[in-house]
């Protein structure tokens, strides 16, 4: 794990790092000492580790809860090299969707393919970050919606260190099998008028989750329109389960 | 409006009253002076104005938010005389359900019948309570699940003083038409394994709500098993919209 830069603003220290060629960012409270809960965040499709939605949430997890937060670029995203195989599939899928094919199964297939790489990558990141003395081996949470849900469900299912997860904007086609193996508390977000994930698919993924404690929050609006008050709820959810 | 008794405990003053033969209870903060938000609560079927689930919520609304809370007995419930017409329908419905008929449409029909009486009754209660100087004409919220939803949806639809509502454990069969006329923010509770209200019916009632801001909270478990953390969410919801 190589640290490339460290900056600080508004009480949050941002550490840019590279681990096995994977670019990542770790946010911690300024002057953090000793172990603390850690949130792993998965960004959305076409986004990257410092997308505005990721950064805004990370800052609140750090400043309001004192947590550490880590995010890395998904293959083919952000500062990672283009992946010709992925690009080809995306282009093909766009053509098939334009020709009238259903979008959801195409997205699902692509996310399952990418997850085969990201699950071990994120486990390696977790290993490395938890060795830092100001993060340590505290409880871990996962946050990810859309692509971050498609990749997050198999990650949470595979990783026993994760104790609670906020997921959503994803469907059962991609993730139902792995979802059944999840047993930790989950807060699951559905956008009632999601133009990318059919409502029934989102509800079916919530239904598939094996967790005894799982709570579905559905709100009107499209894929990108999660209301602001859900972030307040996310923070309370993580505080309840990780603090 | 006739006050029958007044007691106080843990900072909450409980006023028992009768209005046009309707027995009711009003809870306010001890020593309350001046106007404040008011929550109207509708109890469940077979319950009454001081059922444990009503009292527990009312106490938290009063102590944590400084609100006033009012609940009255639904016709045929609590301290109100038995209603032979209602009793006959309930007995008939039980027989029809025992004979294999679907329960949900029978419940829906009964609730619609009772609502024709409770909507004007509750409006009269609201008029009277808001004239008290320590309640006043502040913003009004409504809380009710199960029968409290079946009766609450037409009440909230009819009553412009209600600015926000927590509803749930109810289905579209009883209430979809009135739900379309509701435009205030709603937090709507669904129990994912509800044995009395089919999941699809609950989701369809949420869908029917005309509100631009509405949020569905669904959790595993049966009709009576709303998790404790939903009350925390209810309190924040009312605080956000009424304070």
Automatic annotation (TrEMBL), chains A, B:
UniProt keyword Hydrolase present: yes
InterPro entries: AB_hydrolase_fold (IPR029058), FrsA_esterase (IPR050261)
Segments forming a coiled coil: none
Domain of life where this protein originates: Bacteria
Keyword Hydrolase: yes
GO MF annotations, alphabetized: hydrolase activity
Keyword terms: Hydrolase
Family note: Belongs to the AB hydrolase superfamily.
Official protein name in the record: Alpha/beta fold hydrolase
Source organism (scientific name): Streptomyces ossamyceticus
Record lineage: Bacteria, Bacillati, Actinomycetota, Actinomycetes, Kitasatosporales
